[in-house]
Amino acid sequence: MVTAQGVLDRCTIDLLGLPTELAADEPRAAHALASVLGAARLADAQPSVRVRACSSAPAVPAAPPTSSTPEFETWRPVRGELVLRHRSGLTARATSTAIDIGGNAVHFDASFRRTLLSALAHLLSQHDRSVVHGAAIATDGRAVLVLGGTGSGKSTLAVCALRAGWDVLADDLVALRGSSSSTMIGGVPRPLAVPSDVLDDDPFDTQPIADDQRGRRELPPNVVASGWYPLVGAIVVDHAREARGAVERIDSHALLHDLLGSWAPLEDPRDVRQVLPLASAVARSPAAVVRLGRDPATRAADAAASLEEVRSRFGLLA
Questions:
Q1: Which of 57, 109, 153, 186 is spaced 20 to 30 Å from 259 by Cα?
Q2: Helix segments in the chain, DSSP class H
Q3: 190, 36 in Cβ contact below 8 A?
């Protein structure tokens, strides 16, 4: 697994099939980079992609930003290049082969995570890997995409899936790509971040996450499954109004709406052309809404029952 010292010494990881070199010029940046990609497996191959965390911020173009949100200013100086400046001052420059990220911020770890993950989405999109804000769980070698907004319960469902014997590929960012016969899904190798109220007995030896406003805890990186899996269905997760959870139907139009709303920002027309066939394929697959019960005492058991129902509906029973 990735460590801060390994990043300082330079190491190569498998980033969704791309041999990627990680490097940093000072310990704080190395720790932040290792925290974001800490679930990645080390690789022996010659790197084709490089991610470097620096103490100083990359320069931004002199021109006004191409676009601006409350969180980021964005420039696209030339085709294939993206420059992001977080509201904290942290800045990243991303191309198809490299990311340089650096600068200073009061809440350094949280700002670093947000900036790097946005830069990674841009880089991966240029390697036929379309990034979606979602989780992915798998059983018997086949995977299910889990969609939902921030705080909707993706991480809660992921840890419940782990306890029920499923594999978890990611709880925050996944990548989709097409193959000749199916849509494949893999996880961006970030350690799982789980709400504390799901971990009453904490069987996973978790650690608190620095600068996390939601007070989540991080699971050990070795619980995250790696590799690409055929995608067989999708779940939209949400919280139930009642104490007990439930599984409900969802039609393809509603699923497509949730899916496109979860995709990494698309500003380049080439990105849109890459995304639409994938989105259409996912929207045609089996889908359901899983509502997590509000009663903490029964939430894990309800989620396990819901996952068993999903296994049956999606034809995942061995």
A1: 109
A2: 4-9, 27-36, 108-125, 154-163, 252-262, 269-283, 296-313
A3: yes
- Report yes or no: 231 and 145 within 8 Å, Cβ to Cβ: yes
Between helices 154-163 and 296-313, what is the axis angle to 10°?
80
What residues contact 303, with CB distance under 8 A and at least 6 apart?
156, 157, 160, 161, 164, 245, 290, 292, 293
CB atoms within 10 A of CB 182: 14
Question: Both tokens of residue 31?
Answer: 């720790």
Look at residue 88 and give its three-state secondary structure.
Answer: coil
Assess contact for 297 and 244: CB atoms under 8 A.
Answer: no
Count of C-beta atoms within a 10 Å radius of residue 282? 22
Reduced to 3 states (helix: H, G, I; strand: E, B; else coil), residue 13 is strand
Question: Can you give the pLDDT of all 318 residues of the chain as single tens digits?
Answer: 899 999 999 999 999 999 999 999 999 999 999 999 999 999 999 999 999 999 999 999 999 999 999 999 999 999 889 999 999 999 999 999 999 999 998 889 889 999 999 999 999 999 999 999 999 999 999 999 999 888 788 888 988 898 889 999 998 899 999 877 889 999 999 888 777 666 666 566 767 666 666 667 777 888 899 999 999 999 999 888 888 888 999 988 999 989 988 887 655 556 667 788 888 899 999 999 999 888 877 878 888 889 999 888 887 765
Nearest to 182 by CA among 137, 235, 140, 231: 231
C-alpha–C-alpha distance, residues 144 and 119, integer Å: 25
Q: Report the amino acid identity of residue 116.
A: L
CA 66 to chain centre: 25
